[in-house]
Amino acid sequence: MRDFTNDSRCMSSYSEPVQMLRQTTRHAVRSLSALACSASLLMAQDSAQVAGVAIPVRQLGPIEAKAEQSLGNVNTLRALSNGSVFINDGVRRQILLFDQSLKLAKVVADTLGAPLPYGQRNAGLLPYVDDSTLIVDPASLSLLVLNKQGEMVRVMSFPRTRDLNLLASANFGTHAFDSRGRLIYRPQQQGGAALGMQFGGGDFGNTRSTRGGGRGGAPSTPPAAGAAGAAAGGAAAGRTTPPAQSAAEIRRQVAAVAEDRFPSGNSAQISVGGVRRTRSFNDRNLPDSIPILRADFDTRKIDTVTFMRVTNPKFEMKQTEDGGTQVNVKMNPLPQNDDWALMADGSVAVVRVLDYRIDWFKPDGTLERSEPLPFDWKRITDDDKTRMVDSLKEAAKEATERAQQMMMGGPRGFRPGFEPVEPELLPDYYPPLRAGTSLADYDGNLWLLPATSTLVSPLAALSARVPGGLPGAAGGAAAAGLAYDVVDRAGKIIERVQIPAGRTIAGFGPDGIVYLLERKGRDVFLEKARRLPPQ
Is the whole model's pTM more than 0.90, yes or no? Predict the structure, then answer.
């Protein structure tokens, strides 16, 4: 059997089934993660005492409003200063405007009968400056600017059109643009060859001359003098040779770039039971780095704010004996991923998974680094790893069968498959937070969903994010409310907030408003509550 993992010619011929496999892979990995947590309930911790630090536990205020209009899903919620909200419902292919009492005020975009067409491809919704909002239209490769009444007022172009499909599928939840009107976003993860999906390949940043290499997007080296006056044929007119750098200066620059791409190296100091321990990434499964990008609409350039560390996706693509193609995706139930959110003041908060601390990258490029947050680190023994992987094999089989059913009618001989990673590739400690769950509210706080908590079982926390119809999606969020660590701008956990049972957070609004989603069968209903002020 021939391994086609790195054969770009073979991969390009299967672009259609690869696109069909994207969504199935995302759903399957969430399902396996949920079941992994249900098999490891031993990692629960004391919610009131975390690593010896007392954290007040509070509930959200009562439900202030609930929408009567049902939704299929909420891809993105955009809250306005007057209490109105835009909803991007990707399942029903609609963009809706609700008033402050959550009554349907207007159908902004739809497949039929609306002022704007939704189209056959998923549209995106981005919070823009002030009360304006952007619709990402991948079909026309443009951004449609809406006012607060949901009326289109003008059209914009994005500096790099190949990223529009990514922006259309991204869920920003709260903020997307910083205080200077620059879009902050994270590209897809790169993963060997060209699967081009969240857990496969992706062209994430061939920005070349437009990408800054230094922290905060500052260019790592200044442009050569006279480069702007390059003569025909590529020769630069008047270019001067830059001065030689000392060995110490070269080492300093190399160290700065390494710190950006791999903060603190592969190990960090944590506190386990009051004893300082060294926590390291698995040497056999070292994470990769992906950038957080910043697009400037005035200069039409894209640079890099910083880098995140993420678990490398693993897959193999082989030709079968009957001439078909088998794609096996290795599912990691405990990915070691940094997480991020854009704060209301334009700062980028990156939550480091290695030691549960936050790096704050300000709009001016400066960095603030918080102390590690308190967390009860739970070690995973070799026997625990083996049991966890064994418990996921049946779920992987079901995910494979479902994926192959979805691929029926596609290219002949294309067979997707899923299986857990080998036990030795799992980390030695449970990750401190659930990847992709960090949110920023309008009051300058960061909401983090910790990986372990007795307030909510691990199964409930993760299965709440698993789409219906997949293994592990059986109403876990209804058992108990999800509990978030609320971190202030100083990097301190000020309280733990538990949301009502059976709900997930859709986004935030001004004055402490928290928008929730409640699922009833195939329908989703939007609710509004409020974070109570500290007593």
Answer: no
